[in-house]
Each structure stands twice: as structure tokens, then as C-alpha cells.
Specification:
- This protein is an alpha/beta fold.
- It folds into two domains: 139 residues, Rossmann fold (3-Layer(aba) Sandwich), CATH 3.40.50; 121 residues, HUPs (Rossmann fold, 3-Layer(aba) Sandwich), CATH 3.40.50.
- 37% of the residues lie in helices and 22% in strands.
- It is built from ten helices and ten strands.
- Strands 3-2-1-4-5-10-9-6-7-8 form a ten-stranded mixed sheet, sandwiched between helices.
- Helix 7 links the parallel strand 7 and strand 8.
- Helix 8 runs parallel beside helix 10.
- It starts with a strand and ends with a strand.
């Protein structure tokens, strides 16, 4: 069951992650911790000695004011929803925020963060997928365009037989049990490996948990996996995607673009990932 949620609160006018986390709490009767980061001022090392202390303090005060405003918005929304909640303001560097949230998230059932806006990304709002590596917990990434709360009419499971995908499906079971329809989707450029758990076998396993399951295999030699996943999710009106995060090393994924990173950059529905 999901009983304890932590969410990274957006510092802009909109907070899709905070509202989505509140909607999950409503559905599961869960408690939510809203974390707002007051980021340390970013000062280039080459000019460190030439920056007046007053300027540094004004930058710090500005980030704290944004964090306090985010907490106030979160508290108002949580009170309206009637859920159990608390908040915390955390000081952090921009580069270290994801790792810090990951460490906080180890004692929670679920972590919720928002996708950065493509057109207007700001350092204040970016907590990237690094939270997957530090937390050991499932993470739901919420699109910046998300307006609706949790909806589970149709959940799409991306299955490639990997350890990460297996972990993601196990972590998502509380959500899957509330879903009206679950679809196992295999996207591949070749047939499955011998000895690998097939989509049909996985479908049978999930059906034994009382889930309504369909299995779909998409095979193409020139397939673009992230685009295929997102296109299929749009075509089938999926409400959530579940998948493993980072099949290769994080450095290799960063250099090559990687399915994980590319999908998170372009997603249009919430994505639950585990690593």
C-alpha cells in the first residue's frame, strides 16, 4: 500500500507534482511531505571574490521566499483536499537537490517530482532523474502540462524482461490494483531472448493478482523506443506509464541520450520509474 509520499514542490506559479501527490494521497488515504528547496546562490568560481556579500544574501533571501510561497500553495491545496500532510524547507545546491531528495525519500513509499518545462526551464524547478539512484524507491515524474489528478482507467506497462522493469512493475502494484485496465507493451527490434519472461507470462502473473491485462508486442528493426512508447500511450489514451529506469549506466545514458532521459523529456502522461 501507498501510505507515505514525498513530493518536490514546484517553485513556479503552477505545481503539477504537488497537486498530483495530493490526489494520490486522497486515493490511498496517505500522508504527504512537501519538500521545497531553497537553493544556494550560483556564483561562478572565477568571480567569487568580486561578489558583494549583500548580493549573495539577497539571492538567498529570494530563493527562500520562493520556497515559502510554494509551501503556502501546497498547504492550501492539502487542506482543501482534507489529507494528512507536512512540509519541509531544505537548503541545497541546484546540482545536489535530486540526490538530497533521494536520501529523504528512502523512508517513503513513493516520490513525486515534476518534469521541467521545455520552453522555460528554470534551475529552481529542476530535480532530475538522479533521485532514482539515491532513493531506492519508485518515482513518479509528472508532466509540466499535467492538470488532472491521479487517474488509472488505463495503465501501460513497458516490459523488456529487465531487472529494472521487473522492479517497476512490483513497485507499481498498489496503483495497478486500482486500474481498470492494464496493458503490457513490449517494444523491441528483435524477438525475445530464450529463457526471458515473455509478455504473456507476465500477463498471466498479473492476472493472478486480479488485474485485467492485455499484452501487445511492437517489433520493428528501426524502432525509436521513446517515441514509440509515447505514441502508443497517446493512441490508447493511457493515464500512466510504468517502466524501468536506466538499463545502462547513468553516464552512458547521459552521453547517448538513452530511452529513460529522452522519454522523460517528451512525456505527456505521468511516468512511474524504478531503478
Amino acid at each position: 500500500m501507498i501510505k507515505d509520499i514525498v513530493v518536490n514542490l514546484g517553485l513556479g506559479e503552477r505545481d503539477p507534482a504537488g497537486l498530483f501527490a495530493i490526489s494520490i494521497a486522497e486515493s490511498f488515504g496517505a500522508h504527504v511531505l512537501g519538500v521545497a528547496f531553497a537553493f544556494d546562490p550560483v556564483i561562478p568560481g572565477t568571480v567569487m571574490g568580486g561578489i558583494p556579500p549583500e548580493f549573495i544574501e539577497s539571492q538567498r533571501a529570494e530563493t527562500e521566499a520562493k520556497a515559502k510561497a510554494a509551501i503556502a500553495r501546497f498547504e492550501e491545496a492539502a487542506r482543501r483536499a482534507g489529507i494528512s500532510y507536512e512540509h519541509r524547507m531544505v537548503s541545497a545546491t541546484i546540482s545536489g537537490a535530486a540526490d538530497q531528495l533521494g536520501r529523504i525519500g528512502r523512508r517513503f513509499d513513493l516520490i513525486v517530482v515534476a518534469q521541467a518545462e521545455r520552453e522555460n526551464p528554470t534551475a529552481d524547478e529542476i530535480v532530475d532523474e538522479g533521485v532514482l539512484f539515491e532513493s531506492g524507491r519508485p518515482v513518479i515524474f509528472v508532466p509540466f502540462i499535467q492538470k488532472a489528478g491521479l487517474k488509472l482507467d488505463r495503465v501501460m506497462l513497458c516490459w523488456d524482461g529487465s531487472r529494472a522493469a521487473t522492479r517497476a512493475i512490483a513497485d507499481s502494484m498498489p496503483l495497478l490494483e486500482k486500474a481498470k485496465k492494464v496493458e503490457v507493451v513490449i517494444v523491441s527490434d528483435k524477438p525475445g531472448k530464450q529463457g526471458e519472461v515473455s509478455g504473456a507470462d507476465l500477463g498471466q502473473h498479473l492476472a493472478r493478482h486480479g488485474l485485467s491485462v492485455e499484452v501487445k508486442r511492437i517489433t520493428s528493426p528501426d524502432i525509436d523506443v521513446p517515441s514509440t512508447i509515447l505514441s502508443y500511450a497517446a493512441d490508447t489514451s493511457a493515464d500512466m506509464i510504468v517502466m524501468g529506469g536506466y538499463g545502462h549506466s547513468r553516464l552512458r545514458e547521459f552521453i547517448l541520450g538513452g530511452t529513460t532521459r529522452r522519454l522523460l523529456e517528451s512525456m505527456t502522461v505521468p511516468v512511474l520509474m524504478s531503478h
